[in-house]
Protein 1
Amino acid sequence: MTLRIFVPSDAAALSMGANAVATAVQAEIESRGMDAVLVRNGSRGLLWLEPLLEIETPDGRIGYGPVAAADVTTILAAGAAGAHPRKLGRVDAIPYLANQQRLTFERCGITDPLSLDEYSVHGGLKGLRRALDMTPADIVKEVIDSGLRGRGGAGFPTGIKWRTVLQTEAPQKYIVCNADEGDSGTFSDRMLMEGDPFALIEGMAIAGIATGASKGYVYIRSEYPHAFAQFNRAIAVAREKNLLGRGILGSSRDFDLEARLGAGAYICGEETSLLESLEGKRGQIRFKPPLPAISGLFAKPTVVNNAISLATVPVILAKGGGFYRDFGMGRSRGTMPLQLAGNIKRGGLVERAFGLTLREIIEGFGGGTWSGRPVRAVQVGGPLGAYWPTSLFDVPLDYEAFAAKGGMIGHGGIVVFDDTVDLAKQARFAFHFCAIESCGKCTPCRIGARRGAETMDKIMRGERVVQNIELVHDLCETMRDGSLCALGGLTPMPVVSAMEHFPEDFDRGAAHRAAAE
Amino acid sequence: MSSSTTDTLVRMANDISNFFRIQPEDQAVAGTADHIRRYWEPRMRAKMAEHLTHGGSGLNAIALKACERACKSVSSAPIYRGGT
Amino acid sequence: MSLHTGNGFEVIDRGTPERKSEKQVTLEIDGQSVTVPAGTSIMHAASLAGIQVPKLCATDSLEPFGSCRLCLVEIAGRNGTPASCTTPAESGMRVSTQTDRLARLRRGVMELYISDHPLDCLTCSANGDCELQDMAGAVGLRDVRYGYDGENHLDAVKDESNPYFTFDPARCIVCSRCVRACEEVQGTFALTIDGRGFASVVSAGMNEDFLDSECVSCGACVQACPTASLIEKTIVQHGQPQRSVITTCAYCGVGCSFEAELQGNSVVRMTPYKDGKANHGHSCVKGRFAWGYATHKERITKPMLRSSPKEAWREVTWDEALDHVASEFKRIQAKYGRGAIGGITSSRCTNEETYLVQKMIRAAFHNNNVDTCARVCHSPTGYGLKTTLGTSAGTQDFDSVNEADLIMVIGANPTDAHPVFASRMKRRIREGAKLIVIDPRQIDLVRTPHVAAMHHLQLLPGSNVAVANALAHVVVTEGLVNTKFISERCDPTEFEAWAQFVSREENSPEHVEKISGVPAPELRAAARLYAKGPNSAIYYGLGVTEHSQGSTMVIAMANLAMATGNFGRNGVGVNPLRGQNNVQGSCDMGSFPHEFSGYRHVSEDATRALFESAWGVPLDPEPGLRIPNMFDAAVDGTFKGLYVQGEDIVQSDPNTQHVAAGLEAMECIVVHDLFLNETAAYAHVFLPGASFLEKDGTFTNAERRLGRVRKAIPPMAGMTELDVICKLSTLFGYPMHYNHASEVMDEIARVTPTFAGVSFAKLDELGSVQWPCNEKAPEGTPVMHIGSFVRGKGRFVLTEYVPTDERTGPRFPLLLTTGRILSQYNVGAQTRRTPNIVWHDEDVLEIHPHDAENRGIREGDRVALVSRSGETSMRAHITERVQPGVVYTTFHHPESGANVVTTDYTDWATGCPEYKVTAVEVRLTNHESSWQERLDHLHRIQRIETVAAE
Amino acid sequence: MLKKHSPHFHDDWDPESARGIIEQYKGLEGPLLPILNALQERFGHLGDPAVRLVAEILNLTRAEVHGVVSFYHDYRREPAGRHVIKVCRAEACQSMGCEDLVGRLERALGIHLSETTHDRRVTLEEVYCLGNCALSPSAMVDGELLGRASEEKILAAVGEQA
C-alpha cells in the first residue's frame, strides 16, 4: 500500500517553511524510490508545531514538528516506527487536539483539501444531500433549531436571518460569505478555506437552497492571497464535480459561487460595507434598515454570514440541529473555533463547545506565554474586544457571560500579552486602529478616533491627565452611542476596559511626578 | 415683383402638396388648397394668382389645382370653415 | 441654504424626502401624535409635527445618509440611539428627540466637528447662512476640549478654478451632501470622497480642480453645502443677501423657478427654488450662475436713433424715440399700405408683453403681420399636435417622466439644452427605464456615466419621417398595435388608412435602412421596445422640427404614440423640449400671423367678434406674413417697417444673407433688446429692453406651466416692454393702458378659454399652473388627453416620407447639422457676456476622423464651411460623435456664422427653417470668409459709434 | 520570474493590454474591484490613465473610480519599489514585539514606513493582520508570508530575490 506523507500547505505552515519541507519530502521519495505520496493537507491547528509532518500508519498518523527541510532525510530514514527528536507520536493523541470537540474543523488537516472524494469519505456532502430532499422551510428550521449564531462576531441567530431572506420575494437572491477576517488574533476562516474549503462551499450551497438564492460570493481579504488561490482551486473542482453549477449533485437546484478579493479595508468585514465593496464601491457603511436580508447585494435579499457559520451548516444538516444544539451552554450553542494568538506558548486553533473558561483555554491549551513571563492581559474578540486582566479568567466562554463583564467573544480570537504590555499604549492603539480603518462616513468615528488617539497621547505625556481621562470617557460615549457601525461603536470597548482594569497604566501624571522626584 | 419670391411660393406650394399627395387626389387638392388659404397672407396668394395667369410654371399637378382654388379670389370673404 | 427673507414663501427643510404610501402610521414624538405615510423617516415626521431635530448631513432633497449623527433620538423600548433620518416611523413608536443623553451626544459630535473647523465665523462668507453655525448654537456647544492643535484640514488649499464658486476643504465637514447632490440630483457623479477616515476629503474627478473635472457647474453641490465650503463667489465678494424674490429663469424652456437674492437693488445670487414645480430645487450652469449679463456693461439703457444704419447711433429720450417710431410707421403705412409694417414677438419676453405686442399689431397696425421666433424652432410642434390631438402643446408635465418605462429621445440633446429636465430623465433611467436615442450624432445620453441607450438609431439628417414610418411599420405588421386604445380613442377609418399606409413595403425597416442608414434590426428592436412600454414617452427637440418635414415628423410621432396607446396618463405622451423660456407662451399668446391667443384662426368669425368687442376695433380676417415671407415681401418692396422684440433674426434665422437683404430693403427697423445684437446693425431705432429681473409677468414652459416672473430690481432703462408697447400703441392711435402685468393676464383670461382660470392671484397661491386652466380644471392640467383627446377622436394622418430638396452631391458631399451646448444659450447674447465663456469660447466644426483624413484636416485646423447659400470658417474638432458624412456645429457665436451656410428650405406646413440639413463641403483654409470680414467691419462700426455716444 | 517574485514591479503602462484585462472582467456583477486588482497586479499601480480607462469602459466617472481607488489601502496611485515588505502591526504581533521589528527594519533600510528606498528596491509598509497570529510577529514579503519574523529573516527574503 502506498505510504501517505502529509505536509500542510496552510499559510501559517508555509510561513514557517512548509514548502521547503515538502520539496525535501518529494525529493526523498524520488531518490529512495519509495512507494509513497506527498499530500498537501491543511493545518491541524497546532500552529506552534508547524511545519507538522505526518506519516500515515495502520495505527494512525504519526506526527513530527516543527520540522525543517533538513530533518526530512532522518525522519524518513527512521520511518514512522523509528525514533526521532521531532517525533510527536500519534497526532490525534496530542492532548491539545485530543481535548477538542471538532465539528466545523472535523476534517481540517486530515484530508487533502482539494479532494472532493476524500471530503465525501470523511462525512462531507451528507448535509447537502439531505438538504436537497428537504423543503427550504425545513432546512431553515433545522438551522434555527441548532441554535447556531453568527461566528463573525455579532452572534445573530443564523437561521433567523435565513428565514427573512426565504420570506422576501425576489427574482434574485444572494448568499454572501464574509471571509474578510481582519481581527488581529483570528485565522479560523483562513485555515478553513485553505484546509477544508468544500465545507464552506457545501454550507453556502445549503444556504442557497434554503433561501432560494442561486448565486454566492465569498469575500476574501487581500491579506489572504494563499487562501484566495486555494479557495478558487476548490471552486474549480466543485464546478467540475457538479457540487456547483446547474442542477447541483444531480438535483434540480442551481447554485454557483465566486470568490472575490478585497483590497485592504478592515471595515469591509462589516456586512454593509462588504456589500458596497462587492458592488464595486467605496466600502462605506450603509445604514440599517433596510436589513441586507431584505435589501442587500445589488438591493436584493442577501444572506451575509461569516465563513465559519456557513462551514458549520453541513454538520448541522448532516447530524441534525439537535445534535449540534447539545453542545454548549445557555444561549451559546454548539462549538466555537477559538484562536490562540499573540504571546502564547502553544498558539493554534481550539474548537470546543461553549462553556469552558478563559483560564482553561489560555493556561490549559495555550500553556501560558511564549516569553515565559506572566500573563498580564488578554484581548478577546479582536481589536474591538475588551482587554481583560487575569482576574476575569474564570468567566465561561458564552456570549452573554462575556457581555455581562463588558467584553465580547467576537470571532473567537484570543490575544495574550505578558507583563511588559502598556495598556495606555493599547488603548491609544485602539483609537489609532479605528482612525486607520474608519470608512470616514460618520463623524464620531471619522474625527473621534483621531481625537481619541491624540488625547491618549496627552495622557501618556502626563498632560491634564484627569481632565483628559474624563474627555476620553465622554468621547467613548459619543462613539459608542453615536457611531453608525460597530467599528466606531466598539472602539470604546478596548479603551474603556483598559482604563477600568489597568488604571495604573493611565496615571502618567503620577509616573511623571515620580520621575521628577 | 421679384421672380425669386415667386420661386419661393412655387416651392412652398409644391412642398405643401407633397405632404397631401399620399391621399386620394381630390383630398390632396383640397388639403393643399385649405392649407394655403389658412396660412398664406393675401399678398402671397395674389402673387401666386398672378403666376397662375402666366400658366403657373413649376407647380406640380396637385399644387396647380390647389392654387387655382385657393389663390384666385384673394379678396373674397373669410374662407375658414372650421376643422382642420 | 438660502435665505427666505420677505418673499412670503418660507420653505422648511424636513431632512428627508417625502414618502408616498397608501398605508399611514401614527406615532408619538415628544408627546405629540403624528400620522405619516409608511416609510416616512422619524425626522420628517417630527418636522411635520413642528419638531426640528438637529441635523447636518440630512436635507430633504437627498436620500438619507446617516453620517452626521446629530439627529439621534431615543425610542421607547429600543436599545441605543438610532438616527432619526434613517429610521422609518412605525405605528405605536414613542420617540424622544430631546433628552439629557441626546444632548450630551449631540454636543459630543459638535465638539468633534468644531475641533477641525476654522474659528472665523465672523469673517466667514457663510456667516448667518451656515448650518454648522446654527447647529453649534442649537446643541449649546461652549467648549472644544480637544483644543485646536490636533490634526486638521485648516491648511487645505482652496479651489477657485470654477468661475462661479469656490471649494474650501478647510470648511468642509465631509457630510457628502455635495457628492450626493451631484449623483442623485444632477446625475453627473463628478464628485467623490478621496481617501477615507479622517483623511476623507471631497474631490472633484481624480482630485482635480473643479474646472478640469467632470463637473458641469450646475450648482447642486453649492446648493447642498451646509457650510462655506462650497460657496458662490458673489457671496464671498458681496456678503449675504438681504431679501429675495421668487421668479422664473429666462433661459430654456424648462422654466426653473429661482429665488433672486438681493442686496438693495443688486442681485447677489440666484438659487433654485425648492418648491418650483418644474425644477424641484435644481438648476443648471446658465440659470444658476450666468445671470451677470443682466447688468453687463454692454447693456443699452437709453433709446437711440439714426437715420440710416450706416450712421452713428444717437441717444435720445424715450419720447423722441417712440414719437419717431410712430411717425415712421404711420408714414410707411400711408405710403405703402396697411400691410407694409409688422412685428416680431419674443419668446424671451413675458406672456403679457407678447400678448400686447400682437395686440398692438392687430389692433393698432390693423394687420396680422405678427410672428415670433417660435417660427424658427417649434412651430411644427403646434401644427402637428393640433392636427392629430387638438392642442398645440406637449402632453405631459415633467414629473410624468418619473413613471416612464421607455424613453425615446428624438432630435433633442437634453443634457446640453435642457439640463435640469435631463437630470430627472437620467434619474429615471438609473431607476431602470430604458432609453432609445434617435439622433444623427452621438449625444451624451447615448452613453454617459450610469446611462446608456439600449438603441441609438444614428440616422442620416433628414430621414426622420422615414424612420418614424419604419417604427410604425413594425408596430402594425408585428401586431403590436393597442387596438383597445384605438377603438376607444381614435377615428377607426383614419387608423385603417394609416395602418395600410405604414404597412407598405416602402416603409419597412429594410427599405428605410437604405434611406436612413439605420440597420433594419435596430429599427425593429426599437419599435418593439417602444410598443412594449408599458409606459413609453417621446421627448423631442429641434432635431424633429427644423426640417422641411418638421410638421410631418411631429404628426408621425403622434401617430406612433396613438397606435401604441401612449397618451392620457403619466409616463407617456409626446413632449416637445422647448428651446426658449417662453416659446410655448409666445405661441399661446397669439404670436402667429394666422391665429389669436389660444390657437384660434383669425378667420373664425366668432373668435374675431370676441376680440373685436374686447379690443373695440375691427380685425383683419386674413392671415398675416410669417417671418421668412416678411423678408420676401421686403425684397419685393411691399414690406417696409418692422418692430423686433427680443430676437436676433440676423444671427438666428437661416440664410443670413437673404435676411440681410430683406432688412436692408426696409425703411424703419426697430430693435427692442438688451444689447446691440446683430440685427441692430440694420436698425434705425434701438429701444432698450428690460431683463427678466426688471419686470412682472409670466413665462410658460415646455410643460404648459405658467410661472411668475417677479420684478426684483427697477428697469435699468426706466421702462419695461409693457410700458413701451402701451405708449407706442397709444401714439399709434390705439390707446393702451395697464397698471400692472396682472391686468394684462386678466384680459388674456377673459379672451382665452384655456386661460380662463389664470390670474396672478392664483399663481401666487399655487406657485404655478399648467394650462388648460379654467372651470373644468381650476388648478390646471398636468397631463392632457386623459379619457379623450382635446379634438375628440385622435386623428391618424398619413406621413409619406418626402426627402428634402437639399441634397448632397459632388460639390457639397457632407451634411451639416446644428445644435447647442450646455454652457451657451441660443445665439449667446446672454451667455457670451458671462464667465460661461470659459467652457466654450468659440463654435467649432465637429467632423468624423474619416472625413477629416480625406481632406487633410487635423484637430484645431481652420476650415472653410461652404454651402449653396454661403461660406464661413471655423476650427475643426475631429470626433466620432458624428458619423462619416455628417458634420456638426453650434451657433452661439456670431462670428461662426452657422446660418450663413444654412438654406432657406422650410417646413412645408409652418415655414420653420431646415436648420438641421445643409449640404456642405469642408476644406482647409487660412483666412476668414468674406462674410466674416464684413461682420468684423459691422461690429467695428457699432462699437466705435456706441462708445462715442456714451 | 522577475514578475512572479516582484509583483509590485512597475511595468510600463500599456493601454491595449489594460483594455484586455478590463474587458475580461467587465461582465462580472460589480466588476470594479476585480478589475482594479487585476490592473494593479499587472502594472504594479493604478495611475491616472488606468483610472480614466476603467471609467470609460465601465461607463463610470473618473471621480467614482478615483474614489474607490483612494478608499482601499492596497491600491497604489504611484509605483512601489521592486520588493514590498509589509510588517504586521496589529495586536497579536504587538504582543510579540513588532514595533521593535519595525524600528529595526526602518534603520536597516534607511526609510520610514510607507517609503521606498532611493534605489527603488524596497518599499516598507505596515499591515494590520496577516492571519498568522499564533506565529507572531508576521510579515509578508512580495506576497509570501513569514512567521516568527525577524529583521534577518525579512531582509534575507528581500536579498534572495533582489
Protein 2
Amino acid sequence: MMGNLLEHMGVERDRLHFSWISSAEATKFVDVVKEISDKVRALDTDKKFAKDYTK
Amino acid sequence: MDTCIEKIRTICADLLAKGKVQKVIGFAEGSIPMASRPIAVTSKEDVAKLVFNATCGLNLANYVSDVLPKEGKIAVTAKGCDSRNLVTHMVENQVSRDQLYIIGVPCTGMVDKRKIAALFEDEITDFIEDGDTLTIVSPQKKEKVSKKDVLRHNCRVCTHRNPVVFDVMAAEPVEEQSLDQPFADVDHIAAMDPAARWAHFQELTKNCIRCYACRNACPLCYCPTCFVDESSPQWVGKGQDKTDINTFHFLRAFHCAGRCTDCGACVEACPMGINVRDFTRKLNKDALELFGWEAGLDMEKRPPLDVYSPDDPNDFIK
Amino acid sequence: MNFITIDKKDWTTGIDKSRETYQVFGPVQDENGCQIKPLAPDVHPLMDAGVTVMSPKSVLFPQTQKMLTATLDASIEDHHVMKPVKKDDTPRVVLGIRPYDARAILLVKLNFDNPDYQDPYWCEAYAATTFVGLGVNHPGPCDFSTSTGCGPFSEEGLDVLMADLDDRYLAKILTEKGETWAGACGFDTRADAAESQSLFDILRKEAEKNITSVDTDQLSEKSILDLYEAPFWDDVAFSCINCGTCTFVCPTCWCFDIQDETKHKTAVRFRNWDTCMSPLFTHHASGHNPRGSKVQRVRQRFMHKLKYFVDKYDQGIMCVGCGRCVASCPVNIDIREVCTIMNNYESK
Amino acid sequence: MEYPQAVPLKYAINPDVCLKLTKDKCGTCETVCPADAIDYTMTEEVLTITAGSIILAPGFKPFDPSKFDNYQYANFANVVTSMEFERILSATGPTMGHVTTFPKLPAQPKKKKDKLLAQKRKDPKKIAWFQCVGSRDVNKCDNPYCSSVCCMYAVKEAIIAKEHAGKDLDCAIFFMDMRTPGKEFEKYYETAKHKHGINFIRSRVHSVTEDPETGDLLIQYVDEMGQIVKDTYDMIVLSVGLEISRETRDLAKKLDIDLTESGFAKTASFEPVTTSRDGIYVSGVFNNPKDIPESVLDASAAASAAGDALAEVRNTLTKEFPAVPETNVVGDRPNIGVFICDCGSNIAGVVDCPNVTEYAATLPYVTVAEETTYACSQDAQDKMVEIIKEKGLNRIVVAACTPKTHEPLFQETLKNAGLNKYLFEMTNIRNHNSWVHKNNPDIATDKAKDLVRMAVAKAALAQPLKEEKINVNASVMVVGGGLAGMTAARSLASQGYETHIIEKKDCLGGEALKLWKTAQGENVQQELDALIKEITSNDKIVVHTNTTLEGVDGFVGNFTSQLKTNGKTTALEHGVAVLATGAKALEPTEYSFGKDDRILRTLDLDRMFKENDPKLDTVQSAVFIQCVGSREPQRPYCSRVCCTHSVDNAIALKEKNPETDVFILYRDIRTYGERELLYKEAREKGVIFIRYDVENKPEVVVEKESLKITLTDHVLNKPVTIHADLLTLAAALVPRKDERLANFFKVPLNDEGFFVEKHAKLGPAEFATDGVFIAGSAHYPKPVNEAITQGRAAASRALTLLAKKDSLFTSGTIASVDVEKCSACGVCVSICPYNAPSFMAEGRFAGRADVNAVLCKGCGLCVASCRSGAIHLRGFDTNQILSQIFALDEVS
C-alpha cells in the first residue's frame, strides 16, 4: 500500500523495494541490491523527497 | 432532524438523571453561522444545548478516550462514521465497549461549508436548516439550496450512514447509498501521468501551515508523541520546506492505512481547505481492493496492516 | 495630514509604477481563500477581498525563517561557525492591509523591537516596509475590532489609510513613508482634508454599527490567580483539538521556535512559528511538561492574550479583534465568549 | 578441511602425504603462516580420561558403489554418488551449485584427456536417481537393511536440481518402495510428483552402459507393466546407503558392546540408546540408520541416559570463572577504541589496513585505533584488555571477520576488561569486503573506511544492556502419561527434579497399553508394567490421573497451570513443561469396518494376540490392508508404524500356523532401518505382498462364510479375489489436534494437528516457546523405541534449561517500550509470535504495553509495527541504525 500511495503521488514505484532475503541467500541479496541500484540509477536522483538545504 | 434532536435530548436527560452515564458527548450550536461545537454535558439542565445538524462534521470518537471516567460510562452521539471510529478505538484498545453508551444517529450527510461560502461574495450571517432545504443569508442575499447539492464529498460517497454499533438509535435508520464508482476521485488522479499526479499533490498542499488540525481532528491520531514532534530521531523537518510538508502528509496518511473511515474530519478541520483525503482515499481504496477491508465494521478484527495472514497479497515482495 | 484620491482606473498603473521601488505585497485569492502574499509582476492585489485567512504578520515574520548557516567542511575557512544569512532590506509595500492587522504589527513590535531586545530580522523588515491600509466598509460576523483598541478605520500602525468609495480610493497619508509610496505610484490628486475626514468618519460609523462588542474593561482588575484557578477552563477547553490554527492565523501571536538542521556538510539554523497549543511548546528536556494537558494550554493562550499581556504592557488585550481564530477554529472556540467569561468572572 | 562447515574450522596436515613430515622437504606452510600456527614436531599423544559414561556417536560411512560392476561408478564420468551430487548442488561446491555433466573433472582441467572430456561438458537435460544402492541388498553386498534416508534425499536432490537447472530438467527416480515416513516427508514427496514433475519409476535398473562419444548413459529396465524400456540419461546419481565402517566395528569390539549382524549397536526398544554394556550409550546412525531429527533425538536421549547414571555426582567437577566487576559508563562521553584486523593477509592482502587505521583515528570519539594481525588471537585479546583499561575506553569497534563466529569472543574480552559486552560493535571487512572485492583493493579500502565509520557511529550510541536473570522453578509438568511422557518424567525425576504427570484417564500407559510386542519382539505389557511401577514408586514423581489442564499462565521458568481433578481445580507452579499427549488410531470409515467382527484394526489384533484369543488358531486366510486413512488427501502423512506392525503380526500368524494364507495389501512397504529384516522374514515365511494404488483400492464385501476382498494384482495386472476370515486394517494414527493446549503454551499445530517443533531437523524435542518440550506421537506417529527416545530427549532438553537455574539470563538485545510514547493500540500484542508484549495491568501507565524480557527474542517485529515509535530494540535502537545510515551517507 505504501508503494501504491507513493506511486499515486507521482513518485516512481521503483524507488521502493521489498524483498525477503535470508542470511543464507547471499546470491539473492547481491542480485536484489544490483537490481535496485540499477533501477534507481535509471531514475536519477530523487528531487521530490530530497530536501534542498541550499535554499 | 428536529425530532432526532428531541430524541437525543430525552435519551441523554434520562441517562444522566438515572446516573447511567456520567457525561454525554455531543454537539452544541456554534457561535457563528454554520458552526457547531463538540460539548460534554454532565447535568440534565444542559441537555438542551445538544443539537444535531448538517454542520456537525467533526468526529466525536476523537473525544472519547480523553474523558473516560475510571468507573462508569459516558454516552456519545455517533453518526455512521463516528460509530466506525468507536469500533476502531475498541479494536485498538483505546476504549472498551462497556465504557460507552452509544446513541446512534442516522446521518444524511454534512454540508461542505466552503462550498456554501463560495456561493456568496460576502460573509454569511445566517444559516437555517429545514430537512433537505438550507436557507443561507448574507448582507447581500438570501438563498435556498438543497443539502444534497452542498454535501461534503466524503458524505456523498458514504455507504455507512447508519451507525454500525449503538445502544439506542435516535431515529429510524436512513437508506444507505450505493455507488457505481465509489472511488471516482481516486481514479481521476490515477488517470493522470506521474508528473501531473505529483503536481496535483504539490498544488494540494502548497498552503499547508502545519497547524496539524487534520491530524488532531482525526480519531486515529492518538499517539502520545506524533512522529512529526519527535526530535531524536527527527523523522521530518519542522519548517515550511515543501519536502517536509510532503513527508508529513504522506506519513500521516500512511499511519491511517486500513484504519481510516473517511469521516472527513481532517478536511473539515483544515483552516486552509486542503483536501487531505486525496491521500487517505487512495489507501482506503487499496484496503478494500487488496484486503476486502473497510475500517470500523468489525469489532473482532484488527486492521489489515496490523496482522499477518498467509494469503495477504505479497506480489510487491520480490 | 494629506488626503489624496485615487481613481480606480489609475490604481493598477500606479501600483505597477511603484514596483520599480517596492516589492509589492497584497491580497490574492486562491481556492483556499484569500492571503496576503508577495505579488508576481503580473498580479495585482485583490483589494475587495474579505478577511484574509492568514494574517499579514508573515511579511515581517515568515513562518519559517532562515537565520544562520554554517559549513562543516573543514577545508573551508570558518567552518563550524554560524553566520547570518543575507537579509533582504529592500523597500516593500503591503497593500490592502486592514486596520486591525496594522495594529497587530504594533503589538508584535513590543516583542521584537523594545529597549531590551531588537530582533534584527524583524526590525530590518519593519523598517523597509510601508503599510497601505484599507478601511473595512462591511465588517464580517467575527469582527470585534472596536473592542480591542482599534476599529474598521483605525490609523494605528499604518502609513496610509484608504477608504473604498466604489469608483475611487480616498487615501489619508499618515507618515513620510506613506508620502514616499504615493509619490512612487504617482498618486498626487489632493483631496480636501475636512471633507475627506468627514467621509472617513461616516464610513467608520456605518461600519462600526455591524461590529460585535465585547467587554474587556474588567480584565485588568481581576486577580491572575482567580482567573487561573477558575472552574470554567474545562468547559472552554473541552472541544479543543490542540491544533495550532488559532495561533497561526492570529496576527498578534509572535512565539517562535528555533531549529537546527544539518545535511552532509551544511548546517542551517532557522526559526518557525510556534504554537502554545502544541504539547511540545513547553516540553522540558527533562521530560517534564508544565503545560502537559490540553486545559493548561488553552488556558495559557487566553490568559496570555487577555490577562498577562494586559497587565504587563498596559496596551489593552493582545488581540485586535480580526475574528480569524473564530472563523478558522475547527471546533468553534470563540475568543469573544471566553473574553466575556473572563471579564465577568467573579470568584466565589 | 573436508567441508566449509567443518567444526572446528581449522586446517589440519595429512601426515601421510605431507612432504615435510615424510621427506623433510617443503615446509612452505610454516613460512607463510603469519600466526605461527604450524608445528611439525607435534606427535600423537595418548590421553587418559576418566569418565562416568560414554556416548558413542561414530556415525556412518556412505556406501562405496565402486564394487558394483553393473553401474560402472568407477568408470563412467557421469555416474556419481548422491553425496557427490549433494556437493554439486552446493553453492560452495566444486561447480558453485551449477549442475553440469562431467562434474568430477577439475574446473580448469590440466590433463589432456580431461580437457577433451571437459569440452563435452553440458547442462544435463535428464538425470536419473537409482535408489537402494548398497541398501536392501544381499546379493551384491551384505546390507539387508533399509538406509532410511535415501528416498527422501533423492527427492530433495531432484527438486533442488530442477531449481538450479530450470524446470525443463527431466528428473527420474528409480525405486522399489518410496519410503517417506518422516514428518512432513509424504507431503514433500507428493509435491515432488505433482508440483515439480519429478518422475517416479518403480523399477530396479539392471545395468548402465556409456556412449563413449558423448558420455551419455544408456539404461534398460522393466517397467511396471512388464515392458522393457530403453532410455538415455545425461547423469545418473546412485543413492548410496549408510554403512557402519570397519573402524567403528573395531571400536565396538574394543568396547565390548554387541552389534547386530549389519554392524549397528544392539539396543532394546525400551532402552533405545543403551548398549549391551553398562554406562555406554549410543546415538545416531550407529544406533540404526536414521535421518537428522532422529539422530538429534538420539543424541539428546543418550545425553539424558548418560546423565541419569551420573546424577549424584553432577556439578562436582565444574570450575567457576571469576567475573570482572563491570565499570559503569552511563553518561560518560564515548571513548571509542577501534581495532582493525589484518586477518593475516585475508584482509590486509586487499585492504590498506594502515590507511584504514589512520582514518579510524580521525573519527569522532575515537581515541585509539590499532591495527592487529589477528584480532582473535590470545595475545591480541590480552592487549585489547590492557588498552581498554589503560585508555579508559568505553566502546569498542572491531573491524575483522564475521560477528557470527567472533562476536562472542570479543564480547568476552570486553567483559574481562570490565565493560558491558553490549558496548561492542563489529564490522565485517573480510567476508563482506576483502573477499568479495579482492580484485579492487582501492574500492575495498574505501569500503572498509565506510564500514568502520558506520560502526563507530553506531558504537558511539551503544548503551550497556542488562541481561535479566530468569528464576527457574525446578519442577516439571508432563502432560500425558503415555510411554513418552512417563519416560521424560522418569528421566527428569532421576536427575532430582520434582515432576508432575497430568493424565486425563484413570491410569498411566496411554496407547501402549494396547500393544502386544515391539518390532524387536519385546513384550510391551511386561515392560510397560515395570515402567509404571517405577513411576508410581518414585517419590519425585506426582501422578495426577483423571486430571485435565484448564489454563496456563507465565513463561519459561515460571509457569502456573490450572489442573482440574475430578471437578476440583488446583494450581501447579512449574518451570518447564513437556507435552506428550500422543495420538490415537483412526476409526476407519471404509473397507466395511464396524460391519463385521472379522474386520479389525491392528490394535484389535494385538489385543487378540495379547489375550491369546483361540479364534486366531482357526484363521485360514488373513488379510492386512495398509494405509487405511494415511497418505490420503485428508491425511497426507504416513503413519510410520503400520507397515512394520502388520508385517510383524503377519509373521506371528504364520508362526501360529504356517498353513494360514497371509496377504498384505500395501502401497509401499516402509520397513525402514533394520525393520527391513522383518519384511524379508515375512516374505521368506510365505506372506504374500500385493501392491495396490490409491486410485484403485481393494474392495471388501462381507459374506457370511468369508470376507471377499478384491483388488488388482500389480504383477499380473488382473483382478484377484481373496476370501479371508480375518481382515486387519492398518488404521492411521491421528493426532489429538488439541488446539486448547496449543493455545495455552502458544505452540503451533500443523495442518493435520501434530505439534510443530522448534526446528524440523535440529530442534525436534522442543518448541519455539522457551521452556516447553515435545515427546511422543503428539509430535508425529512413532513406534515404542522412538517414543521413548523422544521422551528422553525432551527430558534432556528440559534438563539443560533446569540446570541453568542460577545462570539463565535473557538476551540484552530485546525490545523495550518507551511508555511515554506508547499509545496502547495493541499492535505489538497482536503481532508478536512469542507473546512477549502485554498491557500493563496496574501503575501509572496501566493499559500501555510492556515487553516481557524473558519471552522476547529480539526479532524486532513489534519495533517495526509500532505506529507510535514507542518500541525500541535495545542494541539496535532507531537512532543507532539511523546514525549508521547517516554515516554511510557522509562522503568521506
